[in-house]
Amino acid sequence: MLAVLGKLWSFMQPCRSRALLFLLIAAVEMTVIALAPLSFKFIIDRAIIPGDREAFALILLIIGTVGTFGIAAGVAGDRLLARINAAVQQRLRMRLFSAMQRMGAERFQATPSGEHVSRFSVDLPVIEGAMTSMMTIGLQSLSVVAMSAVVLFSLQWSMALIILFGAALIYLGPQLLERRARTAFAAYREEFGEMTADVGEYVRGQAVIQGFSLQRTITARFADRLSGLFVSHYRRNAASATLDRVPMVSLLLMNFGIIGFGSYLALIQVISLGDLVAFFTIYTSMGNAVYNLTAVLPSVVDARVSLDRVTELLDMQEEEKSGLKTGLPLQAGPELRMEGLSYAYSDGREALKRVSLTIEAGSTVAFVGPSGSGKSTLLQLLLGLREPSGGALLLNEADLHALDGELYRSSIGVVFQEPFLFRGTLLDNIRIGKPDASMDEVIAAAQQADIASSIEALPDGYMTQVGEDGGNLSGGQKQRVALARALLRNPALLLLDEVTSALDPLSESAVGRTISKLSHGERTIVIVSHRLATIANADRIFVLRDGELAEWGTHDELRMKRGLYDSMWEQQTGDSTIEPVGQGGACDAEAKAERLSV
Ligand SMILES: Nc1ncnc2c1ncn2[C@@H]1O[C@H](COP(=O)(O)OP(=O)(O)OP(=O)(O)O)[C@@H](O)[C@H]1O
């Protein structure tokens, strides 16, 4: 309980003065509640038994005034707490979201998407619920217990001791069960995250599911997931119910003991009748308070699991933040050098093995190779999203990982194999990398990416809304919108990952020509592609095989070598004749490939 309180208090940092004011107001309200039962003693002993009507009226007036004051304090406290809760949630949502954005690529990919979502949809509401119940029922019950204890001792110490002992028993029972309950709560939360991830995946994969008629398979798989979830859900509910039940039983047993002992003391006239009534009233309100306190416990245990999950992410952000470095945005096409560059994924397998090469400043180079040869991994390293496990990656002679990753990536443009469009207009999607870009700049970028005429042909033009994941655009259109987005930044370094993979041969050729036009020496362009026709004009082509640099050169040089590149070219184009592209102009290879592939 204390650990949870400490953590929640730290989350309240920006509204601590409000929180302190709330505690003050709550203290007033609690005092009124805790002392209320004492009014019976005065009414019975000072008004009813002596038959004093004046005293009766005065006592009622005092009770009414104090009660009104207590209610007013309660209402003010409610308002304050509502505001504190909203502020804490807002801050946590923001911090969680920022932490997700700063998460390293490796860790992000290793976390199921449902995990990310359930931190927002499950953990934060649980924390809010626990905070509310701790700050209301919890706090109220604690104060009632403390103040009632003082009043009880002032009335009759032996009865007070017995009641306190009983109250401790009622409270300790659930505490002993807490660890087991926490394990059950954590297991449920984990399974729930997996289920959310499944649902998300099935939503995203609907086209494949329907296309392959996988509904039955998917439903059966989901049913398996639900049976796992059922078990953990049952265990969680059972643990929660036990946490509720144990104090209730203890309370009933205590009632029995106290009624007997208290009545006996009144019978032998150790205490007055007023004392006895006040005693029972205080005992009842104290018992209820202890019971309420234990009823808050399941939500606290639940919140502790949620707090652990949330703070794990927030603390990680601090770790990654502490590694931030300095640097300047790129002004012109940089030189990139790899010296014995290696990368191994967490399973230990090396996706890149001691790659050494130089990408000259302002040149256009391509990485090609069979599937799984390490092209995308290399691109991730170039993006600074993964750290090499061996060797060095130098940008203008500086270690790329000694640079501020955010600053570095803000001056480069990147287009991925699967272009992602955000919900919103096409204009928003293109402008997202440079929010202050003018409309003319946007149109120019769209023209460069060969998408301007398609956008202008749409009824709403640039204001066309794209559905979630760009669902209402063709693959080729999405790809070109993503290219326009990257070009809008006029990046010094442009990274293109399989940009033509979703395009038909004619569009591929058009985008290929666009890329050729972009290569005017002021920017460095790195292209990763399966489709050799797109990259045949590159200044240098690097061929990867099983993570190693197998060969490199221009298209003509590589064809002459009759190696891996040549055989890939032959496979893709069916062309086994070696005809230098250089003699027929820059677009020869591309035109030839186009001829062959159309
Ligand atoms: N997240 C990952 N975890 C573990 N291994 C991975 C991961 N991503 C890729 N790999 C492995 O690393 C190797 C290189 O993969 P990579 O995606 O870089 O190849 P690629 O040349 O881009 O392939 P493709 O052309 O099919 O996209 C492969 O053996 C792949 O199985």
Describe this structure in words.
It is a single chain. 66% of the residues lie in helices and 10% in strands. It has 21 helices and twelve strands. The chain is elongated. Pfam families: ABC_membrane, ABC_tran. This is ABC transporter ATP-binding protein.
CATH class of the largest domain: Mainly Alpha
What is the overall number of helices? 21
Number of domains: 3
Class of secondary structure makeup: alpha/beta
Radius of gyration: 35 Å
The rounded distance between the terminal residues' Cα atoms is 70 Å
Largest sheet: 6 strands, mixed
Shape, per Cα inertia axes: elongated
List the uncertain runs.
582-598
Bound ions, cofactors and other small molecules, one mention each: adenosine-5'-triphosphate
Query: If you average the pLDDT, what whole number results?
Result: 81
Q: What's the name of the CATH homologous superfamily of the largest domain?
A: ABC transporter type 1, transmembrane domain
Q: What is the CATH-assigned architecture of the largest domain?
A: Up-down Bundle
CATH topology of the largest domain: ABC transporter transmembrane region fold
Strand share of the residues? 5-15%
Subcellular location: Cell membrane
Membrane topology: Multi-pass membrane protein
Protein name: ABC transporter ATP-binding protein
Keywords: ATP-binding, Membrane, Nucleotide-binding, Transmembrane, Transmembrane helix
How do you describe this structure in short?
With 598 residues, the protein is of the alpha/beta class. It contains 21 helices and 12 strands. It has 3 domains: 317 residues, ABC transporter type 1, transmembrane domain (ABC transporter transmembrane region fold); 182 residues, Rossmann fold (3-Layer(aba) Sandwich), CATH 3.40.50.300; 70 residues, P-loop containing nucleotide triphosphate hydrolases (Rossmann fold, 3-Layer(aba) Sandwich), CATH 3.40.50.300.
